[in-house]
């Protein structure tokens, strides 16, 4: 056997039967996300205690057979509260990220294809929006209109539209300069056709990856807002709010403050892992 | 003569993304004597660069040398450790890449980069190295050899940069230099000077060389022996004269035949009353519109051309002469600032957006790079279906049948329709690209350098196809190219462009005796298969000074 300068790295390959390569790290990330999604859907069916009820005589109680993750500052069951919190954290973030990315990508592609004054106006307006600090913007809106779930979703999506727009526009500008778009343009195609048929299929991969990253940002911002008391209002609580409620337990190392933090971390890290290891299509199919 | 390089039964493997191993070099054996220049020639994917890189003990990522030996001056590059190889690279074997522009660091001066090899290997003091570099610059006939080293890469021309990268390779006094298509990206008038410089330096120093190229005529000028490769195997080895005059292998003959395409029989014009396309005083360019209503940088200035029905017009010129801009202005992609375009008796709008759908349909444009001209996310079927639906309102069975017809026309198997462009070869992609233009049933097709990105043999096949289709469908082509032999093969009239202006219009039979001095320079610079051509060709220094940006 001879030595070569380029060692072939042996990547663990799974699921290659389907013509896709999906590595083990991506699978782990995907399983955790799937787990939280299931929890969010089925939470009311599986919680052992009602979320608002004080069931433990102790506050910041330890992990026990009755209370799997201890109890919070009022003696409520932490396990049930985290399961229900998943609904708010995952649901609100998902809704916000969908709105943000959809609007951002459509506007970005339109600006890239149309060019001219529309591009300039849209870009300057969204840049201006981008220059407002996101937490401050959230604070002002919630202080002015009051906190409710639709307000939260809209605020979060407005905050993340400019980033999504910039990203999609940059990608679309590159595709727009390709000859096949020129060919379609001098065929006489409409802007809508150019966006839908020529540009979108070629940027959808990076856009999905961007959606994942933005989802993480939104989870963190939502948790931040809730931590400041501007997010989901009591007695309901998302994970950020759970951390805030129980921050007093930090000196005692109470599970009540650690568990929701771990929940936030596990979700965001998993999404990142999945994005970095999305399934890749195998081009060599002569096997 | 002592053997400098002995490659024995070399095998290189590549691992695909599904983990399958493919042998890309299948047991190749090549010898190179000291001071001998051996050319590796073959189409893209034949493994010529892969073999050249193994001479440095290098395999590209995903590839590995699976067997055999590469002995360079007595050392087997395959079994050496990476550290030992690093010592040899730059001192005994050196590499001149295809694109010198990409190989230079734009942030450092040329001299610093040229003498970097001597610093890394501790060969000589910086002052000695600089003196040697200046000698090399002189030997490579670079202008201002004393001071050119203090410039940055963007301050010299492409031909100069290519010679500077040769100086970088030669400074460590190597026994073997690998040239990887060093003149492919250059204009023909520049190429001559670069080839001459390479040849004289190599002969003077008695340096062995490996010259990788797909252009037989270029190789004929510089190589002592030629190795013809195909599919990772040696097809034929012989001295340059042998290969050129007495080729045995069918593939070599194909390569030779492709070099001299058959001249087209000039179409008999059936006394067409009006020309198909008539362009008068076209002006097009880029940048801000000035007070006189013309753009700041005019790439095409006052060009008038005429295309008769069923006849072809060739537009030839070097990079930057405005030939592609002219095509874009005709197609309306870049609206012209002045002049008139009369197509089939009707004056066309300058901007494609204001032309009618019927006008757009009748004039199609085919671009140079099929890679970027086909949407990678769509199948061949979808690509061809769109113009059929868009212009002819075809759907269902009729459309599907027409797609089959189109694939037949461009000689592609019908089952290719479900593939994506990424799964096709370069020649196949260019055929799909062309079929899409045919789908519109045009009267005129603008071909912008459509064979430049293809291998010689494939390009010849595409040209043959174009001629056949013209006979069947009565099309006209405007054929834009920098390659005289291609234009000669297919066109009835040839327009020579320089600096945005039309300098001459001639017919192919008069190409031997052009009138305008620039045409003379351009036509005489095209390499011929004759190995003595480079030494015999004379360039008028006055003309070179006037027309070449070296």
UniProtKB/TrEMBL annotation, chain A:
Principal subcellular localisation of the protein: membrane
Transmembrane segments: 20-47, 88-117, 137-161, 211-232, 252-275
Subcellular localization: Cell membrane
Database matches in Pfam families: BPD_transp_1 (PF00528)
PROSITE patterns: ABC_TM1
Membrane-topology annotation of the record: Multi-pass membrane protein
Keyword NADP part of the UniProt annotation: no
Record key words, sorted: Cell membrane, Membrane, Transmembrane, Transmembrane helix, Transport
Annotated ABC transmembrane type-1 domain residues: 86-275
CDD domains: TM_PBP2
InterPro entries in UniProt: BP-dependent_transpt_permease (IPR050366), MetI-like (IPR000515), MetI-like_sf (IPR035906)
Superkingdom assignment: Bacteria
Keyword hit for Transmembrane: yes
SUPFAM superfamilies xref list: MetI-like
Family of this protein: Belongs to the binding-protein-dependent transport system permease family.
PANTHER family with a match to the protein in the record: OLIGOPEPTIDE TRANSPORT SYSTEM PERMEASE PROTEIN APPC, PEPTIDE ABC TRANSPORTER PERMEASE PROTEIN
Protein name, as recorded: Peptide/nickel transport system permease protein
Organism from which the protein derives: Sinorhizobium kostiense
TrEMBL record, chain B:
Organism superkingdom: Bacteria
Keyword Transport set for record: yes
Compartment(s) where it occurs, according to its Swiss-Prot or TrEMBL record: Cell inner membrane
Bilayer disposition of the protein: Peripheral membrane protein
Residue ranges constituting the ABC transporter domain according to the UniProt record: 10-256, 277-524
Pfam families, alphabetized: ABC_tran, oligo_HPY
Main location: membrane
Keyword Iron-sulfur part of the UniProt annotation: no
Keywords tagged on the record: ATP-binding, Nucleotide-binding, Transport
NCBIfam families: PRK10419.1
Name this polypeptide is given: Peptide/nickel transport system ATP-binding protein
Upper classification of the organism: Bacteria, Pseudomonadati, Pseudomonadota, Alphaproteobacteria, Hyphomicrobiales
